[in-house]
Write a structure and sequence with these properties.
By secondary structure, the chain is of the alpha+beta class. It is built from six helices and three strands.
């Protein structure tokens, strides 16, 4: 699934909240957005059509009720899916970039190593 920059901004707000949000909450939590408030309905409808969001009920919003929007996949799954669309070369580039990161310490490296070994064992 490919998302535009504006759609991804909305998804990041929902992923960051960790719960379904109303249109108003999305607007309130959107910082440094590249779209106008009036565009929210178009963006939400596109995300619903792409299957990135689902309607998950209603919540009281002032004197009326508003739809709740919930992500259909996690942010981690979305970003991992997009890395794999680039093929093995893109995965190698990401891995190399992670290894160059100065915040990668021995403890984290050991944890990642264990996960790689578990995946290798699963593939055998």
């Amino acid at each position: 699934m490919e998302l535009t920059k504006s759609e991804l901004e909305i998804m990041n707000v929902i992923w960051g909240a960790g719960r379904p949000l109303t249109r108003g909450e999305i607007l309130d939590l959107s910082v440094d957005k590249n779209w106008k408030d009036n565009s929210i309905h178009i963006l939400l409808n596109r995300l619903l059509a792409k299957g990135a969001l689902t309607e998950s009920g209603f919540a009281r919003s002032g004197k009326s009720y508003g739809r709740l929007y919930e992500a259909t996949l996690t942010g981690e799954d979305y970003y991992a899916e997009n890395v794999f669309h680039g093929g093995p070369d893109r995965i190698r580039m990401l891995f190399d970039a992670l290894l160059r990161n100065p915040e990668l310490n021995r403890e984290l490296l050991d944890e990642l190593s264990q996960k790689l070994e578990a995946k290798k064992a699963f593939l055998k």
